[in-house]
Amino acid sequence: MTVIDPESLIFEYRLRYRGTPGLEHDPADYPLRWEVAVSCPFPAPGGDEERQLGSAVVQVVPKAGMINLFLTTGTADPEMAKAVEMLTTDRPDLIREYLQDGGDLMIVSSFEIFPEYRGGRTGYSVLNAIVETVGRSVNLVVVHAVPADGAGVPPADSAEHEEAKSALRAYWKDFGFEDATGDYLVFFHKNILV
User: Fold this and answer.
1) Averaged pLDDT, groups of 10, the chain, 194 residues long
2) Helix, strand or coil, per DSSP, at residue 186
């Protein structure tokens, strides 16, 4: 594990968006899909260089409680569609309580800190910076606390997969997330300011 000073993290944010976000925008294009690359300085002979330590994709839905969220999933990624279904079907109370008055919604579609940089609360620092940068008006953050698909990930029905899910849930709950339903956790932005 490499210990990283959170103040030394370098964030590169990428957003491609047509038009100006607003309630009159086409709902299927409404979510702002932010791709974030995170790097840190690395001492090297002849000067420092940067090394990527992780990445994330977050979807920000402006004024989420004032629109039909189902319509926003037309071109969204599958993780966005599943999270919107969870909110509208299983937990509409979260929409009423945290989004009805025009608050924004952030859905964490993917989040990865490379293994050699995990620990020392690096993931917390990264998510905190993302929320405070592109999610300043976000009232509710949703994360699906399951291991990402890919090489080296245990099969979904295995004991190892359940252990990985439990570890992720514990990790994000320590950050301040709370149970929503199933494997979904939610975070109320006001908690980040405490």
Assistant:
1) 80 89 73 94 72 94 85 72 92 92 91 89 94 92 87 81 91 94 90 48
2) strand
The domain over range 6-193 is classified in CATH as 3.40.630.30: yes
Alpha-carbon separation of residue 76 from 58, 69, 136, 191 (angstroms): 11, 11, 21, 27
Kindly give the residue spans of alpha helices, DSSP state H, lying in the chain: 78-85, 92-94, 122-134, 159-175
C-alpha torsion sign, points 126, 80, 143, 67? positive
Residues written for the chain: 194
CA 152-157-161 angle, to 5 degrees, is 45
Break the chain into its structural domains and give their ranges: 6-193
What's the pTM? Answer: 0.88
